[in-house]
Ion-translocating oxidoreductase complex subunit G (Buttiauxella ferragutiae ATCC 51602), 208 residues
Amino acid sequence: MLKTMQKHGVTLALFAVMATGLTAVVNALTKDTIEQQAVAQQKLLFDQVISPDLYDNNIQSSCLVVSEPQLGKGERHIYVARKGQQPVAVVMEATAPDGYSGAIQLLVAADFNGKVLGSRVTEHHETPGLGDKIETRLSDWITHFAGKTIGGSDDPSWAVKKDGGQFDQFTGATITPRAVVNAVKRAGLFAKTLPSQIDNLPVCGAQP
């Protein structure tokens, strides 16, 4: 009886070791693939907010860290687009904290003169059928920022029409589009201040 239990115990231990080893091998084999897929998906998203014709550097590798209230709380990543080694635009992670159902995460591209090049929502919890029209799969609403310049913090055109601005609100949902318009505006205004800061900002992943 004891020998049988010991035999079973050894067998189970061997299976556990083999399973652990197999998991490690699978993880090692799939890690690079997962990372490559993440990079490819990020590139597709970047291409939606900034034309590849505008820059000639590897924008995904040109990542800097900022702590800027205009983009949201905490550290944010920004990606500098360069042409002939000169900074020409930036892609920024931004947050609209005042969405109807919580924070709305955005990716906003702008040049350094206040012109928005593109924007996309990357995460939200807005009401289906109402506030979720900020998604491109449901509406082209968010594409209307592209090509529009922000005159300044008091530019009245950068608001929804209900507030006297140029951007449509949604039927039955004003809070969501208002939050996004304001967040894109703040990001564009921040981009105008970046040229003097770029050389002093820490690189993503750098040790403190």
Confidence is low (pLDDT under 50) at residues 2-7. The first strand starts at residue 63 and ends at 67. Residues 1-49 form one domain.
